[in-house]
Amino acid sequence: MELGEESNQPQIHTQKGGNESHIESERVRKMLMLRQVQISSFKLFQSPKQPGCCSSRSVTLPRTRLYRNRSGLRAMGGNGLEKLYLGMDFGTSGARFTVIDEQGVIRAEGKREYPPFMREESMDWVSSWKATLFSLLEDIPITLPSLPFLYNQSCPDALPEVKSIAPANHTVCSGSSTLCKLVSWWNLKLPNRESAVLLHQADWLLWLLHGRLGVSDYNNALKVGYDPESESYPSWLISQPYSQLLPVVQAPGTSIGNLKDSIRRQFGFPDDCIVCTGTTDSIAAFLAARATEPGKAVTSLGSTLAIKLLSTKRVDDARYGVYSHRLDDKWLVGGASNTGGAILRQLFSDEQLERLSREINPTVASPLDYYPLKSSGERFPIADPNLAPRLLPRPNSDVEYLHGILESIARIEGKGYKLLKEMGATEAEEVLTAGGGAKNDKWIKIRERVLGLPVSKAVHTEASYGASLLALKGAKQKRGL
């Protein structure tokens, strides 16, 4: 029995009287309840029947619905573009719905309590369930949120194709590169894919402010294949059918246009407020440190260890995850290790880290040799996806153990700067420190001894400060200063 088809519902007629009539009505009511509860899950559009469902039925929605996918707003229904699947659970006190895609990713969900429909002195469950069903259908959003590819999301399915067109060891030859994400999406062969536009997170957010679709910066565009040295997309990329989706690329801190009038009026910004191209978070953090001369480096000690070195020479090697971002007429060479603060948090509490660090003598080298990782796998400065964590032997003293781990991470940092030099980058002369690890003065002194370089805290460590410097740069360029 499908809900909503009034003509198909059984009509109850009885000539019996008294208690017998009441018993018969109650029996029929329970039968209706049982049959209604069975309608607990059904599909939208064509799909195989899902195992475990009480019932599976095709449903024609009362109006065309729209959903937003990665390439824009699309209509759902008929010969829809993406098949979505709706499940409903009618429980004791209310009902829920969940909409998923073919990969099982939740695209929408919601719930409703049963409305208290009464018939005489008892709950009219049949009417309540029916009303709840159509309320849930009404609650399914007209637009479903887009599902962006996240920065650390890998698309290994596209990697062989990308490697077949890109130069060996190119920055894009990684499953998490933007180009792999683009190729993976393109191969889904969604209708009207040619009309889509590739936007990085910063591009999309800035578009909301200035209204010009398809503008990026050469830092964000690096991993889609843009060549900041020639200031163009390479021929091997332009020849691909999806190249028309690529954004126009400008230098970071370039004025794109004025802030939208509606936003300017709403928040009280001046008439001449401009919006400039952005950059990546790691580069913004480097800019915040005000390291402007070749040989200046910034080590970010967060959950992982990331190093950035300002160099006069460009260095790229996908095997080690090493790549260079352009900074005006120089290159910011960087790499990231899987070691870092995450393993410290796994072994010690914040209170222990602070208390034990006070007892460490940073002038004395630790004899312990570890490779602190949360799980197997390392890329920089050692390219070994199977490299196992090494955190033993553990001494009886927690102070000695922490000392050994901090010094081991410092040695990995030193190997990283040494590798960049061997690859041809400018030799590091001074290291500024950002991230949570910059708060540990004993660790800074350990690193200074191990690296054999001056090491200090960066005055400014927030990436938003670096982004504000780009806004300053763009405003000065616009004024011709």
Automatic annotation (TrEMBL):
SUPFAM superfamilies: Actin-like ATPase domain (SSF53067). Belongs to the FGGY kinase family. Coiled coil: none annotated. The keyword Iron does not apply. InterPro entries: ATPase_NBD, FGGY_C. The gene is A09p071940.1_BraROA. Keywords: Kinase, Transferase. Residues 314-472 form the Carbohydrate kinase FGGY C-terminal domain. It holds the Pfam family FGGY_C. Residues 1-23 are annotated as: Disordered. Residues 1-18 have a biased composition (Polar residues). This is Carbohydrate kinase FGGY C-terminal domain-containing protein. PANTHER family: D-RIBULOSE KINASE, SUGAR KINASE.
